[in-house]
Structure formats: structure tokens, C-alpha cells
Amino acid sequence: MDPAPKPVLAAALDQLWTRFLPQIRERVSILKSAARSLAAGCLTDPEQEEAGAAAHKLAGVLGTFNLSHGTDLARQLEVFYSAEGTPDPIFAAQAASLASELHTIVETRG
Amino acid sequence: MAHKILIIDDEDDIREVAALSLETVAGWEVITANTGAQGLARAIEHLPDAILLDVMMPGMDGPTTFNELRKNPVTAHIPVLLLTAKVQSSDQRRFADLGVDAVLFKPFDPLTLSTEIASVLGWK
Q1: Using CA atoms, how far apart are residues A82 and A48, in angstroms rounded to an integer?
Q2: Of A1, A64, A68, the CB nearest to B17
Q3: Domains in chain B, start-ordered, CATH in brackets?
Q4: Is A12 in Cβ contact with B87 (below 8 Å)?
Q5: What DSSP letter does each residue of A6-68 carry, written as one string?
């Protein structure tokens, strides 16, 4: 590969990150909200489905912006919310912790 | 050699990062579509050298779009690479059984995506 594209690509990726940050934040927000609902024992099927879809999309995209740990965390949440049946509220704190860590990763990307 | 690639993905962030990557790193021409139906139409119109096809899309999903591409004599010869965030081995086997040319995984590295495509398709 020509060495020139690397800085050009990095700068363009930063611009795309800024542009897509609102929808990435929205997906993280869905995951935080689902964890709160789970803790309160009122996670609905549509909320669970939405959380699974948000986690799936984050898992797919964060690594492309050099946030591979974010992809790992999102993948854990995807598996969690995509399992059959309502997740046990006993795991709500873990889901909240993963969502919170995702939030930090997204908000601190350089 | 400048190749022409069609990217079909409903997620605009993934679609745009992939397009940026292939254009900037490899200098390839990129056409995009955000639905399976739009992808079919663009494939017929532009006859790309390869198609990068998302699996999970609302409406016509990736496997259905792939089957439609293969049914049409105009597009049947075009190599198709599935792009998926699914990493479970059962999913991988299912996708491979479809008869696609390759399965690539999200997240991809924008710096090496074009190399990966060229490698699996045997492009120099």
C-alpha cells in the first residue's frame, strides 16, 4: 500500500466518526436504558430486541474506528440480549457495567 | 488495476467507511446501495467487478439478495462477498453453504479491506 493513504484515511475516518457519533451514542443509550429496565424487572420484548440490534450494530462498527474493545463489549451484550427468553435480572448490573464501559469508550475516542 | 465495487449495506456508517476505505486505500471505484432491491438494480446497471453484501438487512436480506443476483444471467457471474458481524461458527457454515465467493467479518480494518478482497478474489 502506498504510505500516503494512511494519514488521509485516518483524517477521513475521524470526519466520519464525528458525523456518525450521534447514532452511535443513541445505540449506547438504548443499551443503558435496557439495563435499567432489566434491573427494574420491566424489560419488554421490543426493548430486548432493540437492545440486541443496537449491540449488533455497535459490534460491527466500533472496530472499524479502531475501537476493538468496544466491539468485544458490544458482542457480549448482543449475545446477552439475543438469547431466547427474557434475561435474568440478576445479570442487570453486569449489563449496565458493559453499557457504561461502552459509553466511556465512545466518549473518549481521540 | 482500478476495480469497480458495489457495496450493499443498510447501515450508513459501515457503508461509508467501506467506501472510503476502498476509494482511498486502493483507488477503486465504489457504488453503494442501502437495500437489497437497490443493490440488484445497481448491479444490473453498473456490472461491478465484485459485490460486498451485508447479511442482515430489513426487507430483502443478504442471502435473498445473493440468490436473486445468481438467478439473473446479467449478474450471475459477479463475485459476491458476504459481510457480516455474526461470528458464531453455525452462522459461518450457513453463509459458506450459500455458495458465496467469500465471507468477510465486521468490524473490518479500513486499511486492509481492499487487500483482503483482492486476496480472496485472486486479484493482483
Answers
A1: 8
A2: A64
A3: 4-117 (3.40.50.2300)
A4: no
A5: HHHHHHHHHHHHHHHHHHHHHHHHHHHHHHHHHHTT---HHHHHHHHHHHHHHHHHGGGGT-H
**Helix or strand or coil: residue B122?**
coil
Q: How far is CA A69 from CA A46, A96, B35, in A?
A: 27, 16, 29
Q: Do B111 and A57 touch (CB under 8 A)?
A: no
- Which residue has 467479518 as its cell numbers? B105
- CATH assignment of A22-107, given 1.20.1740, 1.10.860, 1.20.120, 1.10.1740? 1.20.120
Higher pLDDT, A83 or A2: A83
Sequence-distant (≥ 6) Cβ neighbours of residue A17 within 8 angstroms: A65, A109
Residue of A nearest to B111 (CA): A6
ipTM (interface predicted TM): 0.87
pTM of the model: 0.91
Region for B16 from its dihedrals, namely left if φ exceeds 0, alpha if ψ lies in -120 to 50, beta otherwise: alpha
The helix (run of H) or strand (run of E) holding residue B63 is: helix B62-71
pLDDT at A27 over 80: yes
Give the pLDDT confidence of A45-102 residue by residue, as tens digits. 999 999 999 999 999 999 999 999 999 999 999 999 998 888 888 889 999 999 999 9
Tell me the pairing of strands B80-84 and B102-105.
parallel
- Amino acid B117 reads I
* pLDDT, mean over chain B: 93
Cross-chain residue pair A62–B14, CB shorter than 8 Å: no
